[in-house]
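Sample intake sheet
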Amino acid sequence: MIKIKKILIMALVALPAIAFLTGCKKFLDREPLTVSVDDIKVGALEGYATGLYGAIRNSAAEPYCGDGFQNIPWVAMNGFRSDDAEQVADPGASAWHQTYDNFQYTKDDWGAGLYWDKHYIFIGLCNEVLDVAEKGNYTDPASLINIAEARFFRAYAYFDLVRTFGDVPKIDFKINTPTDAYVAKSPSAEIYALIDADLTYAEQYLPTAWEAKFKGRLTTYAAKALHAKSLLYQGQYGPALNLCKNIIDFGPYSLATDYWKIFKREGELNEESIFEIQASKTAGDGNIYWSRLGQCQGIRGSGNWDLGWGWNTPTASLVAAYESGDARKDATILFSGQSDGGTNTGGYGLTLPNLTNALYWNKKVYNQFSDYLAAGQGTPNNEAQNTWINQRVIRFADVLLMAAEAANELPGNTYNSDIEDWVNLVRNRAGLPDVTFVDKATMKDIIKHERRMEFAMEYERFFDLVRWGDAVSVLGGNGYQNKHRYYPIPSSALNANPNLVQNPEWP
């Protein structure tokens, strides 16, 4: 594992190259993003800002960051640990199953080390943009937008870190020398304060929308949605509700009519999308612009069924949790040896082989070679393992359910018809009947259930269980204890930073 004091320096030195690389290519190399940086009048920081979009999605070598936000370490930290997903498909990776599914964490796990390092690389890139902005005293509207993009991305990275590790070093400045990175941990409250400040700034200066040629760039609503989620984790229900209501009342979003379409190629950046990490795969690009999020979870088969590495598969518990008639089940679960459900549920009218290494597969990352060809990506090969599909991060459904949860948790609340309305919008889209408010406790259970079903296999479940205080009761049978809410600080980070100490509940 490369030590953080070295990779941060590498990242900062390389940022101008990243900006140049990303700026010279089309903004995100995907339709309708058809205008290059050189084609428009922009602020002085545009190249730096677009470089951040490139870095977070890039799975190439250092200093790119994509592997920390969308590869096996991401899926392991955010997916395996829940009761919805498990690592079963690779018989040679039993250690990963023990580590994450059975909560046998160690500070020496390379995946956690990569997750930590890549997040801090990305934070370093964001800090570089902000340092250039401060020294240049840029105040033009375009540059303020670019600053807001950098602050959003920094907040996003820190949100991952603080809910995964708890107290972490707060590095909100440019690293110039290795010793600059010798920063002790800050209390999680200080990290959340930085997140809140960054997102408040982003809310103010990001636009409400972009021209079609820049579709996919961050908006004020993306900042508000991420901020609302951060506030929920802090138990600040009133401010979280206010942000969600602003998005609901004034944002341009609505639920997609067909749930399954959200996760297909044609569902990218749809009416429900608030924030996506965009991917691109063209023959000859190598792994520079692709996403490994789908590749590491796709069906592990052979021939035309070699659709991925099969590392993240649904559990029997998740399959059993769906209500009868819930359309989300057919859009989320593939069954070995059975029909893929056809084109009305996100399938292709095919029958899966009887793959005994897993009973269930994640349908949200299910794409056949034919879809790869339809995207104009070239000849099918291992590149067709869903490497060209965007990562959905925040959807409008999340805002609706966050609003319902925040309103239900407000002190003194006994009934709010909005709670019913928001929850029922999500349920009705899934083909389920309305629910009614009985009392706060019952509605809380309903909201918990809806979040599980709506975001199954979307990396929210473990953190939801932790923040609700339900992780011990739900995951205890797999070995979870309260200390597992936070991961131990990786050995690579401890070895690189003499001021960094291990989390207190870990040896």
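Comment: Residues 4-234+488-496 form a domain with the Serine Threonine Protein Phosphatase 5, Tetratricopeptide repeat fold (CATH 1.25.40.390). The chain is about 45% helix and 5% strand.
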